[in-house]
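hey so u asked for the seq, here:
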Amino acid sequence: MTEVKAELISVGTELLLGQIVNTNAAWISEQLADKGISVYYHSAVGDNFNRLADVFREAGKRSDLVFITGGLGPTEDDLTREAFQHISGVEIIEDQDTLNKMEAFFAKNNRMMTPNNRKQAHVFKGSKVLHNSVGIAPGIIVDYNHTLWVFMPGVPREMKAIMTEGVLPFLTDTLALNTVIRSRMLHFIGIGESQLEYELRDLISSQTNPTIAPLASEGEVALRLTAKAENNQEAEQLIDQIEIKIKEQVGQYLYGYDNIGIEKKVFELLKQKQLTIASAESLTGGAFASKVVDQGGASAIFNGAAVVYQPFSKISALKMSEELITAYGTVSEQCAEAMALHVKKVYQSKIGISFTGVAGPEELENQPVGTVYISICDASDQHYTEKFQFNGDRQAIRNRAVKKAFELLFYHLKP
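ran it, structure tokens below
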């Protein structure tokens, strides 16, 4: 099979307004990857005739396989069929089988079928009509100008049924699909995107199959490895081979795969080592504790948290020394270490972690906004404390502090 370029077009103004999250595109892409079909473009377009026609016209020029979801309903703003007819000239006809099904549905539910409902039975002349087992509007496949056009309802449940029961079997037979696409995500922390790319520059510049794609997020970076092969085993072997080369160069920063996050990884390490943890939080206001208890089974490793925002709360809740706070201030290495030690004792945990600093909007104790101290106190009461200067607004600084804490714990706990 030659390379098939696929494209996904999602129709609906509600998508552009952010009222509905476009989960259809991600799901369809995943199904196509399993069949070895590469998706080159995703786009969303509102319920506007001219813009729909423009997008369809461009898709027909560049793609072999175009999937369109949405705009097949009974209302006036459902314009997908009309826009495609405008660019193709393919006649719209009424499908009797679909119409019969619709009439039976309305009769069974004692509802009146209005004239505009008949629009959902409209298909393209010469097309393959796909049964909708969970709804009314059918799927439609049209071969026009050397491109296969696949039209499906935008309702996820209906789209998935048509895709699974009709579209994928049709494509398998028609395109003689005999390849698969597999991807693996490698997650790294403690190394920036630019440094990661630099360290792997030779591998990235020579990539063919598998491909290597760096993906940055807040406080960490990932590599997506994607391989195309005749079967799953061969694709996984190709990915394994390139992963070995990557780990030889930057493996010390690798913490996990695919859907695992750094919070989950730290939770697993604590559980494996049978360690418990407690947190004392000032500027983060309990955000670290919240991330921990988001993990299923957190009670096995998490003993508690103290949100000690004011100096007196550090003294009363954690039994810290008033003299220490007076001498060094709350935004200091000494205060951070005392918080970690005392929260460990108060909550009888093996590890204590603390956060203190200045999230803004104004400086505190002559410390600039963005100053953060994070301290870890281990089972032997040994401290590991670091000072950071984070940029961004108040929320960004707090988020960075929490992510950095998980990074520090990962490197403290990993074998």
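The chain is about 40% helix and 25% strand. The first helix runs from residue 13 to 16.
lmk if thats what u needed
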